[in-house]
Amino acid sequence: MSVVPSNSGQRTGRLYWSVQAGRNVGVRGLFLVVLAFIVAYGFLFPGLFTMAGFAKFTQSWFPLALVAMAQALLMLTGGISLAIGATVSLGAVIAATTMVGPLGVAGGSALVAATGLGIGAITGFIVVKLRLPAIVVTLAGSFIIGGAALLILPRPGGAMPEWLSDLLAGNTPAAFLLLVVVVLLWKLYLATPLGLSLYAAGENPVGAYRSGVPVDAARIAAYALSGLLSTGAGLFVAAQTGSGDPVIGAAFTLNSIAAAVLGGIGFLGGQGTMRGALAGSLLLSLMISVMFFLGFTPVAQYVAQGLIIIGAVALPQFRKVQR
Amino acid sequence: MKLSYFASASALCLGLALSFSATSAAEAAANCIKGDRKAPYTIGWANIYSVPTWMKQTQGTLEAQIEDLKKQGLVDKLVITDAQGDANVQIQQIQSMIDSDVDAIILIAGSSTAPARVLADACAKGIAIINFDSLVDTDQVTAKVNTDSAQWGEQAAKFLVEQMGGKGNILVLNGPAGVSVSDDRRKGATPVLEANPNVKILAETNTAYNVAPAQEAVTSLLFANPEIDGILSLGGALSAGAVLALDKQGRTQVPITGENARQFLELWKEKDLKGWATMQPNWLGAFATWLSVQALEGKDVPAFVKIPLPVIDNANIGDYLARAADFPADGYIYSPYDQALFEKILAGK
């Protein structure tokens, strides 16, 4: 259940913050781990606190943050997607093949957005209206979408306008500001009727339906938005790399699920918060850089990564057991 | 925030100053080299995937080379990253190498386009970048190092046609479809096959470069084709699969091409085949490392270094098999190398 900020007085304001703090309980451990990693990273690499250093790090994190949101959005409604990586790839190749052509940046962006929304809406419609398991539909979808990306660009290539690459992935924290905007939009969405229905549709669909919540619409909308976030991540990756690669997104499927679960999002729906998923994705991204600066060998990195993930997930559980 | 503006502004000034000084000194030096880095160097090895045997052996030659350079006082540290096949992670790892100010980056790329921008950043900072095996479409590196896949296919086809006296039926075994190495080797073979119309291609396969799928594919082709006079195999483990398939069906072995996979070379000797093989030498890793230090030391390094293909035939197969015990059973027996060879390659001879 989400509580929406309201301007009807201080009392509701206080209530809002106390409810928000209550929602953080499960992910406090994760927040601490993330904070520790940021401190460690800053200590190992003081350049992190220059504008260019901060910009480059947030650029590495940004696409993972978007796909973590895309996955969390679905998992909150009780869904899941195995097509996120393929959708990222498709977004990237569409951007890299249209933006320097007659469509331009505006037309290319519109096409990328429309593709994401369209793919998501169709997937959502099939899952929700035909009552098919999301995991099967999106697995099949990942082959179709991945195939489409390979049809558009069989080999890595294409191009992005240089100024767009420099704007999004240059030495300014544009990507971070963009993420702030996306998060604010998410807050806004939660204030709309569809957004309000999101948690209800995930946690107790039957009860929500009987209370007049538009369960199906909320779930289909979640799939559409998830598609939009995924192709958006693809557009960013294309800008960041200056080109399109039809398989660039492959690893995002598993990483998006890892980030969401790490962030306390439950598989059964209605459980968890977007800030948790974002923190999860931040931890995954931080780990890569921190391990490098600690000078771990690749094999030691695998082991350390696993231990950190288990630790971050287990921390709140320990405290629950103790209570 | 003000502080960071100041820091980036001063970094910009420094960058400008460096690029001015570089233009005057850049005449003789290799690409990306500014001449402000001094030995001993820190070398970054940005691997895309460390698990396959070929990669392990390649890393082995690279590490041996580093030990050698350490003794000479030219290198003091090697940092290794493994992107586990994820091109995005590789970009982040290269960024970390730039942030930690390594002097050279040795790279096998996970995508032929994606690392281009981060490499441009590294190049602008005067980091020597040697890209080998899987190349990136960019000129913002010090040098790219590779063998010629088209030549690979051409030489293999020539050997086979010659062995068959210019006529007969062949099978063509390719690596996976859509992979540039596999496509390029096949393209190299095409003109030779077209020039010999009496050599008839019965069938072609596309499989992963592993023994089992190749053996399976060739087994079913053998049932359909009683008359086969040669096998044009364009990858090491594929040839071992083909030889095993012929053997299992009791068919006579035919002339065959391939790569330096230990299993294939051992079968070659055991079955007394008429064979020909070449390789993507694992010492490319050692060579790339050596080359990065040459560039940092101010030597002129060309933008592309073509590695001549070492050839294994019935005359020298014994030499290779004599060293077999030094290599893993599922590994590749690469040609011997030393610094004299590296210097010869760099001199373009």
Percent range of helical residues of chain A = over 70%
| Strands side by side in the biggest sheet of chain B | 2-1-3-4-5-11
The biggest beta sheet of chain B is recorded as: 6 strands, parallel
What is the total number of structural domains of chain A?
1
| Gross CATH architecture of the largest domain in chain B | 3-Layer(aba) Sandwich
What low-confidence regions of chain A span 5 or more consecutive residues with pLDDT below 50? 1-6
| Shape designation of chain B | elongated
**What fold name goes in the CATH topology slot of the largest domain in chain B?**
Rossmann fold
Ends distance of chain A: 24 Å
By CATH's scheme, which homologous superfamily of the largest domain in chain B applies? Response regulator
Overall radius of gyration of chain A:
20 Å
Q: Which class do the helix and strand fractions of chain A yield? A: mainly alpha
Count of helix runs of chain B? 12
Write down the secondary-structure element order of chain B: HEHEHEHEEHEHEHEHEHEHEEHH
Number of helices of chain A: 14
SSE-based structural type of chain B:
alpha/beta
Whole-number mean pLDDT of chain B: 88
Please name the defining characteristics of this protein:
heterodimer, A: about 325 residues, mainly alpha, 14 helices, disordered N terminus, B: about 350 residues, Rossmann fold, 2 domains, 6-stranded parallel β-sheet, 3-stranded parallel β-sheet, cell membrane (chain A), transmembrane (chain A)
Short description:
Chain A is mainly α and 323 residues long. Chain A has helices at residues 10-23, 28-44, 51-76, 84-98, 104-129, 134-152, 162-169, 174-191, 193-203, 205-210, 215-241, 252-262, 274-294, 298-322. The model of chain A is unreliable at 1-6 (pLDDT under 50).
